[in-house]
Design a protein that fits this description.
The structure holds two protein chains of two kinds. By secondary structure, chain A is mostly helical. Chain A is built from nine helices and two strands, in the order H-H-H-H-E-E-H-H-H-H-H. In chain A, helix 1 packs across helix 5 and helix 4 runs antiparallel to helix 5. The longest helix of chain A is centred in the last third of the chain and has 31 residues. By secondary structure, chain B is of the alpha/beta class. In chain B, helix 3 crosses helix 4, helix 3 packs parallel to helix 5 and helix 4 crosses helix 5. The chains are: A mainly alpha, B alpha/beta.
Chain lengths: ~240, ~280
């Protein structure tokens, strides 16, 4: 979680506009899932990986770390597509391999698109984007607060965990489970106290129930948008031509 | 007339805890005031009354001689003039990036975007954190968070800035830098009031001190004269600042003339030593 967040803040494309980044990722995602041939999906994945690692300069080790969990799920899902169960037989399904390959390639391409956005765009920009496309203010504000407080909560939990460990709270499995229960039970009232304190802090700054802030504006460059569209047209043509 | 005055404030928490017990207190324009008292005595409760966050069970708070009300409109006017920085910066920062967080107050004042942007820029510059504008609030150090929290109120340009234990948890350099920055705010016309339990710090920084104990202000006056009262200092569970002791002793020994200023900083105390060397 915090690795992804750090990367989102420190990559080379941090300040590129959300419009450009989302046009690239969503456009390619649509191509990957709509063009029948799997070649398009592979091409999309290649472009997205290139953009993430070489364009935005995200370290491969970080990218791979973020990728492992979803790839695990993907593998399990795709693997089962190959087989079919009939009465007491387990066999290779007709077109099973082909189907698994196509689904796998598309899902992988989708993952690369998602990771591109996650690793290059801070949540702030995403939430700002949500507001601009007309998501109700209440939902955008909740998202913003949750994003902010997830870090406070994990920090508090980590500190409490360390304090428990220092007093040998993790010495046996049973003690560990008991300590964990206590920790969770303690986090709850703390979270409420925090919320109350925050309300006082916000009220001191004249809060009337709406969390309005000025977000930095990042303008999309026409050139950038043009390049992205041209790239996508290229991928689409190759995809259609090979199918 | 005092800029802000609290009269006979009483606040009893459930369980019959008398946090404020007939508290009288005043803030004069342009005078640096420190509220000095032991930990857990109710200094925070007191500050929360001074910007209208808490409502006293009896007593009143007056701004420029006018009794303040607790309806939404008067609270807004009140907080526009009296800013409060909480002790824990994490209780105040909610926006994901520094500049966004600082823009929150000015927007609540109803300022337009251009003016808000100007205010954010000047507030960040005043706190010497312009370089952090685009940073994520959760990636800052404790000292940086505190500055951002203060900037959030500075951007609202209050007449009085109340700070609850602003140096708690800061290292030596962090404290020095913060005091510097606060002096800058004062030059721009903000009246500074802060609470602390640290007598040394109070002695160095404040013009005036209000000694808080048992839900009341036991005494309020010029800092050196007030803290010379050993009986009072003892009752408030405080200590006499070392530099004050040193100054008093120097006067006793005739190193300092009765009209000469007492040393208020370590540097001034060292100069006193040089003086002895010369003599």
């Amino acid at each position: 979680m915090s690795h992804i967040d750090t990367s989102a803040h420190l990559n080379r494309w941090r300040k590129k506009s959300l419009a450009e980044k989302s046009l690239l990722a969503i456009g390619l995602l649509l191509i990957a899932v709509s063009v029948p041939s799997w070649h398009a999906a592979v091409l999309v994945a290649a472009v997205m990986i290139g953009a993430t690692l070489f364009g935005a300069g995200v370290a491969f080790s970080l990218w791979w770390k973020a990728m492992t969990a979803p790839i695990g799920f993907l593998f399990v899902g795709v693997f089962t597509l190959i087989f079919q169960v009939q009465f007491w037989h387990i066999g290779i399904a007709p077109h099973g391999l082909e189907l698994a390959g196509r689904v796998g390639a598309r899902a992988f391409a989708g993952l690369t698109c998602l990771l591109f956005i996650a690793l290059t765009t801070p949540a702030t920009d995403l939430i700002g984007g949500l507001r601009r496309i007309g998501v109700p203010a209440e939902i955008a504000e909740m998202t913003l607060l949750i994003y902010r407080f997830v870090f406070l909560l994990t920090d508090t939990a980590e500190t409490m965990n360390a304090a428990q460990a220092a007093r040998l709270g993790h010495i046996t499995y049973q003690r560990h489970m008991k300590s964990l229960g206590l920790l969770i039970a303690n986090l709850m009232p703390r979270a409420f106290a925090r919320a109350q304190a925050l309300e006082i802090g916000l009220a001191a700054r004249g809060w009337h129930g709406e969390l309005r802030v000025l977000s930095p504006v990042r303008h999309a460059s026409p050139l950038g948008l043009g390049i992205i569209l041209a790239l996508e047209a290229g991928v689409l043509l190759i995809g259609l031509w090979t199918s | 007339m005092s800029l802000l005055e609290a009269r006979a404030l009483v606040h009893v928490y459930p369980g019959n805890v008398r946090a404020l017990d007939g508290l009288n207190f005043r803030i004069e324009r342009g005078k640096r005031l420190v509220i000095l008292g032991p930990n857990g005595a109710g200094k925070t409760t007191m500050l929360l009354h001074l910007n209208g966050t808490l409502r006293p069970q009896s007593g009143e708070v007056m701004l420029d001689g006018e009794v303040m009300g607790y309806a939404a409109a008067s609270l807004t006017a009140w907080r526009r003039r009296v800013g409060l920085v909480l002790q824990n910066a994490d209780d105040q920062l909610f926006a994901p990036s520094v500049a966004e967080d600082v823009s929150f107050g000015p927007l609540n004042l109803g300022l337009d975007e251009a003016e808000t942007r100007r205010r954010v820029t000047t507030a960040l510059a005043a706190m010497h954190i312009s370089h952090l504008a685009e940073r994520s609030t959760h990636m800052l150090s404790g000292g940086q968070k505190r500055r951002v929290a203060i900037a959030g109120l500075v951007a609202m340009q209050p007449e009085i800035l109340l700070l609850d234990e602003p140096t708690a948890g800061l290292d030596h350099e962090g404290t020095e830098d913060l005091l510097d920055v606060l002096e800058g705010l004062e030059r721009d016309g903000t009246t500074l009031v802060f609470s602390t339990h640290d007598v040394e710090l109070a002695y160095r920084f404040a013009d005036e001190v209000a000694v808080f104990e048992g839900g009341r202000i036991l005494a309020q006056g010029p800092i050196a004269a007030t803290l010379t009262d050993t009986e009072l200092v003892k009752r408030a569970k405080l200590g006499t600042p070392f530099l004050l002791k040193l100054g008093l002793r120097a006067r006793e020994l005739g190193i300092l003339g009765p009209d000469e200023p007492m040393p208020r900083t370590p540097a001034a105390a060292l100069r006193l030593l040089d003086l002895v060397g010369v003599k």
